Amino acid sequence: MAIFEYRGYDKAGRKVSGSSEGNSQRAVMADLRRQGIFVAELVNADSGSDSRLKSLLTRRVSIEDLAVATRQLATLLKAGMTLDAALGTTAEQIDDQQLKQALVQTRDAVKQGQALHRALAVHKRIFPTVYLSMTEVGENSGTLDLSLANLADLLDKQARLRSRINAALAYPLLMAVTGCGVLLFLVGFVLPKVTQMLLELDQVLPLPTRLLIGFSTLLEGYGWLLTLLLIVVLLLFRRWAESAAGRLTVDRWRLKLPLAGRLNLLVATSRFSRTLATLLGSGLPLLRALEITGKLLNNKVLQAAIETAGKQVREGSSLAPPLQKAGLFPAMLTQMIAIGENSGELEGMLGQVADSCDQQMELSINRLLALLEPVMILLMGTAVGFIVLAILLPIFQASQSLG
User: Fold this and answer.
1) How confident is the model at residue 46 (pLDDT cuts 50, 70, 90)?
2) Alpha helices in 46-143 (DSSP H)
3) What pLDDT does 57 receive?
4) CA angle 75, 81, 84 (to 5 degrees)
5) How far from 325 is each of 319, 347, 357, 367, CA to CA, in Å?
6) Measured between alpha carbons, how far is 111 from 131 in angstroms, rounded to an integer?
7) CA separation for the pair 270, 154 (Å, rounded)
8) Apex 12 CA angle, 7 and 16, nearest 5
9) How distant, in Å, are the alpha carbons of 54, 250, 388 from that of 193?
10) Disulfide engineering: 312 pairs with which of 89, 111, 272, 317, CB 3.0-4.6 Å?
């Protein structure tokens, strides 16, 4: 299904515009005609070089801003405000201009009779698939305010998780940048001056000094070539990693990394459990919820496991056995899913799994930081110590020979 943007006239001759979903332009034209809209222009919103360039240059709306807007919209609808008025009021209170514009355009489309989830689907870079699906379920069941409240809770928890991970990684990244800056300063500015002085000494230089001078000479003469080579290697690796086979291999590595692999798995399990619980709680069927949740995981290996599980569920199996057979997710997840399926409390069990994964993530992050900090200090200290030693050794030798 594609999203088409249209401009035209209604039966009264008034100008109208909006978006509509359909398999082809002809199908959308026929649907709009049945609604009494005479189409003057119809454009595929998902195609065209301009739209692709725009999507690359457009800044993504933060998940925090989206959560705030969603909660405001849910509150206004619960208070009895009409949908178009609630959208307009929410847009007025949003600072992010991109989100504000999307809400205003959505309000205009809703006022013209379009369904909310279809109006939001035009802005796919702002509203993810799970957002559109839960909105559609809320509209169809008459519980839009509840679905939006659940969405806001889900977005809030995702934002807190991302914030905790970013905060945990901030200090190690700062140390890495600072250490690399110190090394570049020593190699780029201090070493060339010291090297000339050391070469003027009429003596055999120690091995560390010769290694350091050779490295400095290599950087000075071929630094540009090494930099270019590094860029080419990184670009080739990125191109390979974006291919189907490369992405699968990289995602498999990400799950097997020491310490970090367990953290990646916990993050994916938490997102899978909490999103699936939210979708099921909003009334979405299990198969559709699995399809949406699988796409949200940024790991092809886990996505394939969930797709396989969905196929077996469609054939009559319960969810726990195929996930357990895949051998990728923590045993706690499959055990809690089995309990939830037997007791009819699958959503509650999934919520408990997500909470448990969040707690384990805190411990894993603290453990990873406790290991990263001394390792980085050791590496930076070793590099700086080697440079200082290589500079001082010939000076000590020269002073001893003079004495």
Assistant:
1) low
2) 49-57, 63-78, 83-92, 97-111, 116-121, 129-141
3) 42
4) 105
5) 11, 21, 20, 29
6) 20
7) 11
8) 20
9) 49, 43, 14
10) 317
For the entire predicted model, the pTM comes to: 0.65
| Exposure string for 54-89, b = 16+ CB within 10 A, e = fewer | eeeeeeebebbbbbbbbbbbbbbbeeebebbebbbe
Radius of gyration of the chain (CA): 29
The CA distance from 394 to 265, in Å, is: 51
Model pLDDT for residues 152-174, shown as the tens digit of each residue:
887 887 787 778 777 777 777 78
Helices (H) and strands (E) in the chain, counts: 17, 3
Q: For residue 60, is it left (φ>0), alpha (ψ between -120 and 50) or beta?
A: beta
Structure tokens at 16: 């109208």
5's tokens: 């943007």
Neighbour-count burial of 396, counting CB atoms closer than 10 A to its CB (0-12 exposed, 13-18 middle, 19+ buried): exposed
Residues belonging to the chain? 403
Joined together, the tokens standing for residue 191 give 């070493």
